[in-house]
Design goal:
Protein name: Exportin-2 C-terminal domain-containing protein
Helix content: 55-70%
Pfam family, one: Tra1_central
Number of strands: 0
Strand content: under 5%
Shape: globular
Order of helices and strands: HHHHHHHHHHH
Largest sheet: none
InterPro entries: Tra1_central
């Protein structure tokens, strides 16, 4: 059912005829969707699956996360559904764990040339990381589920990003990833993540020194 629901949203990728007019009517609405109907459909999709039993929800996305990300690469507004799952308290922790693990497994693939055909996929991975960080950054200290979710991955995420950046021919994706992370947790509200981040500062300083001596 999930696969067919997501595939059905491709109908909004079909351009509809513009009315005859000298003024070009934009085929989109604010928020990244092409029409209000598409936004409503994405909201309905998110609402439908957040009403499922949490274990069923987790099983679906564990099994179909790769499919979901592939569809997002083809149909970008699906990222709004991803964001919806991350900000809804009842499923955010479970969904966050699944998608972060998925992205961590693909961290090496961010080391691609800017002109590579794989760069679009790598940029999508970075964008998904940014969506995750943004969702955590919007949470307050009274509901730290996002911090708790990211906590076990944070040290490896930073260390691996530094390691791959030093070896990559074009490390820009890793720099964008780290910048997005630091911006999102840098507001002084995320003590759980700070406790994981502070021990990494010496490694970060060494990393930046290496970049100065041997620019990537």
């Amino acid at each position: 059912m999930f696969k067919y629901c997501v595939q059905c949203l491709d109908v909004y990728m079909i351009p509809y005829p513009q009315p005859p007019s000298r003024v070009q009517v934009p085929n989109s609405v604010p928020g990244g969707t092409r029409s209000k109907e598409e936004k409503d459909a994405l909201d309905a999709l998110a609402s439908l699956f957040t009403m499922l039993n949490l274990d069923v929800f987790g099983e679906i996305f564990t099994k179909y996360m790769d499919f979901f990300v592939v569809r997002m690469a083809k149909n970008l507004p699906l990222q709004l559904a991803c964001n919806a799952f991350l900000v809804r308290a009842d499923v955010s922790f479970r969904f966050g764990c699944i998608i972060v693990k998925y992205l961590m497994d693909r961290l090496p693939s961010l080391a691609v040339s800017f002109h590579s055909v794989m760069n679009d996929v790598s940029q999508l991975y970075v964008k998904l990381f940014k969506i995750i960080f943004s969702a955590i950054g919007c949470q307050n200290s009274a509901s730290p589920d996002g911090e708790i979710m990211l906590k076990p991955y944070l040290p490896e995420l930073i260390r691996k990003s530094m390691e791959y950046a030093l070896c990559a021919r074009d490390p820009i994706n890793y720099f964008m990833l780290l910048r997005a992370l630091f911006r999102s947790i840098g507001g002084g509200l995320h003590d759980i993540l700070y406790s994981q981040f502070l021990p990494l500062l010496p490694d970060l300083m060494l990393f930046f020194n290496k970049l100065q001596v041997h620019p990537a």
